[in-house]
Each structure stands twice: as structure tokens, then as C-alpha cells.
Design goal:
about 475 residues; Son of sevenless (SoS) protein, Chain S, domain 1; two-stranded antiparallel sheet; 8 strands; guanyl-nucleotide exchange factor activity; Ras_G-nucl-exch_fac_CS; RASGEF_cat_dom_sf; Rap guanine nucleotide exchange factor 5; RASGEF_cat_dom
């Protein structure tokens, strides 16, 4: 009950009056209290979810231990046990509580309650990640696969994506020193590339050379543009379903880790990093698809297609892919294609201008913010802008003022982070794309992109040389 909580807290915080206790006695008393609270929490954890006062008590005890662990290092072991019971994944060290590192450690204390609201597990063999399989030095296929996926499965995905016979290809890891190692069909490709800190490449079977799908030849001229045969609403819907699965997996605290701890925090921002990577790859994918299309009439169709997909993403309240597609169409190597843009019908140009206006950065992205605010949940925000907001609050305001916590700053950050919760109030419906496009999911899940601006410009000047 509350009386017991108060007595326990007072016992923990009792001062050393008139020198009657030495440091060892104080630390022993604090350890006993922490041990008691840990046992009690472990026994009644499920019930504690229902009581705000008890959660506040645990939060207060936890913060006091964080303050004391630097003065009494012996508490560190007990603190780790307490963190395990509370479901906290961060492992603190004594050095982190040095007064010189207050700013870095403050966000670990953000809220015990938040850790109970959402659980973020560690990555295992069944979880999916993005891995890059390079076709050339500057282009790759982004493959969403489980860590336990075999080399044969990945090779099949890539071969289908680049429209090349699988039996003529080999999957190879290449170290930074240039050493090659061919992966066998049953090898765990992703694990192998991580172990050797190398890149995965697709080579010709004899390992003499990588492929060059961008060479100026008849094969490129006849390259089928699969996207033109896919319904635009279905494609946008699959993009939205994919983005939602990434967005819905983001733990609210990932935004805090990303902002407060820019270095060495990759393991704490895995899901957020995936969505940011996806946004960047969709932008590159738009430019890649257009610039690999050497036939003018098909290129015009492609631009129209992407404008419609962007409009559908907006209608489906997926602002992350919406921004990525519009930015892809505005990439310098695409926007310079005057022959292509001249042939775009007026109604499509007008639609694109309207869509562009939402990405206008003036007045702190007012157009986007107003439109997004009016959209009902569920909805997917443009994550880079949300991160910019949190970073702006963090860097523009001190965390400590005269050795006191600047709670006004923390309230502003908390309000911004909680906007994720509002976006995810409801789940997206179970609407699925038309069944006739059975290849739609792998097409959207595994994007073929060129990630080098120079290579994109070379393709751009090849299909429409400078006059």
C-alpha cells in the first residue's frame, strides 16, 4: 500500500545523522531496500500496471538509485537486477553516472512507465532486416530477409529482380581488401557477411567480374519496365503496408536514443533506422527506375505512374513514401529530363505541383503540418521531419539549468514523441492488393537502386544528352 511505499522510500533516503553510519552501512541499507523492492516488483509486476501511484514510486526509487550509484558503486549489480525486473534493456555502468556525463544518461531515466507500454526485443534469427546485395560498386538490391535466410534464397530474389538467369550467377562476399569468398547455397548469407565485415556482391558464375546492367546495349533498350503493368493503387497500398510494418515496430524511446545519443546507439534504434533507410531507398528507386528507361514514351509513362502513386500514398495517409516519391521525382538527374517533362500531360503537371506544395519547407513545413494534422489515424508521418523536431528541441534548449533539470524541455520532447502514439491509435485495415499481381509484394519489398549521384547523372545524360 502507499504507507509501505512511503516508509520504504524514507528508509532508502534516510540521511546519515551525526556520523552514526559509515559509508558501508549506508550502502548496505540501500542495497537491502533495493533488494526488497526488486523482490516485491518481481512478485506483483502484472498487478503494478494498474496502479499509477505504485508506478510513480518505482520510478522515484529507480531515479534515486541512478543518482547514488556513482557514490556507491556497490549498488551497480543490484541496479542491473532491478532493471531486468522492470524490463529495461539498457545496461548502465558506473562511469555513465559521472557528473560529466549527466546529459548522456538523463534520457535513460526518461520513464519506467514507457518501458512497460511497449516492449522492444533483441534481434534474433527469425527477425527481418534490410541487407544490400551489390550489383555494381554503386547499385544494389535492397533485400528484406530474415537473418537465417540462405544464400540460395537471396540469389533467387536478386536474379529475379535484375532479370538475369539465376544459374549464371554467384553470391560472393567481398572484404574491404578485395578478398572474395563465394557463398554456398545453404550458407547463411547475412550472418557470413556480418562475420567478415564485408559486402555481398552478385558475380558472374566464373567470378571474373560483376554484372553491368547499365551498359549501353540492346539488352538495356529492351529492358521490361514491370512497374508499368502494375495497378497504381495496389502498388501504393503495398508500399503503405510495408511502411506500416516498419513504423508500427518503432519503440517511442528510439527517438530519444537517436536524439540524445548519436554515437554507438544503433542497437537501440534498429526499427527507426530501418524506416529511415527505406525512405531513402524509395527516393533512389524512383530515380533509378526512370533513368534506366531509355525509351522516351515509356519514360513519360513512368513519370506519370509515379505521380499517381504519390497521390495514392497521400490518400492512404502514408506521408513517408509520399515524400520519398516526390523527392525522387525532384532529384536533379530526373528533373533535368526536359524532353520527358515536356510530354507530361497538363493535368499530371498540375497534380504534381499540388503534391509538391505539401513538401514546401517554408514556414517550418506549414503546408505538411496542417495537412497531416487533419488526417485521421492510423497514419505514417514523414519521419525525418519528426526527428528534426526532436533534435531542434534538444539542441536548442539545455537539459540542465543551474544543476536543475529543465522539465520544460523534456515536456516538449515528450509531446513530440507521443505523437507516434496518436498516429498508431488504430491499425490499418486488412485491405490487400489485387490477387492478379502475385509478384507485387517481392517487387515492393526488394528495391533495386543506384545509390551514387554521379552514376545517376551519367545515366541521365546518356538518355537525354545536354543540347
Amino acid at each position: 500500500d502507499l504507507t509501505s511505499c512511503s516508509l520504504t522510500y524514507c528508509t532508502y533516503c534516510a540521511k546519515n545523522h551525526q556520523g552514526k553510519e559509515d559509508d558501508s552501512d549506508v550502502s548496505c541499507r540501500k542495497r537491502k531496500v533495493l533488494h526488497l523492492v526488486s523482490q516485491w516488483t518481481s512478485l506483483y509486476k502484472d498487478w503494478l500496471h494498474e496502479d499509477e501511484h505504485l508506478k510513480q514510486f518505482l520510478k522515484t526509487i529507480y531515479r534515486n538509485v541512478l543518482d547514488d550509484v556513482y557514490e556507491y558503486p556497490i549498488l551497480e549489480k543490484d541496479l542491473k537486477e532491478f532493471q531486468k525486473i522492470l524490463g529495461m534493456h539498457r545496461r548502465h555502468t558506473v562511469d555513465e553516472y559521472s557528473p560529466h556525463r549527466k546529459n548522456k544518461t538523463f534520457f535513460h531515466q526518461f520513464s519506467v512507465k514507457e518501458n512497460w507500454l511497449q516492449h522492444r526485443g533483441t534481434m534474433n534469427e527469425t527477425e527481418e532486416i534490410f541487407c544490400r546485395v551489390y550489383i555494381t560498386e554503386h547499385s544494389y538490391v535492397s533485400v528484406k530477409a530474415q537473418v537465417s535466410t540462405s544464400a540460395q534464397e537471396i540469389l533467387k530474389i536478386v536474379a529475379e529482380k535484375i532479370q538475369y538467369p539465376e544459374e549464371e550467377l554467384a553470391l560472393v562476399t567481398v572484404t574491404f581488401s578485395g578478398e572474395k569468398h563465394e557463398l554456398q547455397p545453404n550458407d547463411l548469407a547475412i550472418s557470413k557477411s556480418f562475420e567478415s565485415s564485408s559486402r555481398m556482391f552478385v558475380y558472374r558464375k566464373d567470378l571474373t567480374d560483376t554484372l553491368n546492367p547499365f551498359a549501353e546495349n540492346e539488352e538495356l533498350q529492351q529492358r521490361s519496365v514491370r512497374i508499368l503493368g502494375i495497378n497504381t493503387w495496389d502498388l501504393a497500398l503495398e508500399l503503405t503496408n510495408f511502411d506500416w510494418s516498419l513504423f508500427n515496430a518503432i519503440h517511442e524511446q528510439e527517438l530519444i536514443y537517436f536524439t540524445f545519443s548519436r554515437q554507438g546507439s544503433a542497437e537501440n534504434t534498429e526499427n527507426l533506422s530501418l524506416l529511415l533507410q527505406r525512405c531513402n531507398e524509395v527516393q533512389l528507386w524512383v530515380a533509378t527506375e526512370i533513368l534506366l528507361c531509355s525509351q522516351l514514351c515509356k519514360r513519360v509513362q513512368l513519370v506519370k505512374k509515379f505521380i499517381k502513386i504519390a497521390a495514392h500514398c497521400k490518400a492512404q495517409r502514408n506521408l513517408n513514401s509520399f515524400f520519398a516519391i516526390v523527392m525522387g521525382l525532384n532529384t536533379a538527374s530526373v528533373s533535368r529530363l526536359s524532353q520527358t517533362w515536356e510530354k507530361i500531360p497538363g493535368k499530371f503537371k498540375k497534380l504534381f505541383t499540388e503534391l509538391e506544395s505539401l513538401t514546401d519547407p517554408s514556414l517550418n513545413h506549414k503546408a505538411y503540418r496542417d495537412a497531416f494534422k487533419k488526417m485521421k489515424s492510423p497514419k505514417i508521418p514523414f519521419m525525418p521531419l519528426l526527428l528534426k523536431d526532436v533534435t531542434f528541441i534538444h539542441e536548442g534548449n539545455k537539459t540542465f539549468l543551474d544543476n536543475l533539470v529543465n522539465f520544460e524541455k523534456l515536456h516538449m520532447i515528450a509531446d513530440t514523441v507521443r505523437s507516434l502514439r496518436h498516429c498508431r491509435n488504430n491499425q490499418f485495415g486488412n485491405e490487400v492488393p489485387s490477387k492478379e499481381h502475385h509478384e507485387l509484394k517481392p517487387y515492393v519489398h526488394h528495391l533495386h537502386v543506384i545509390d551514387n549521384q554521379q552514376a545517376l547523372f551519367e545515366l541521365s545524360h546518356r538518355i537525354e544528352p545536354r543540347v
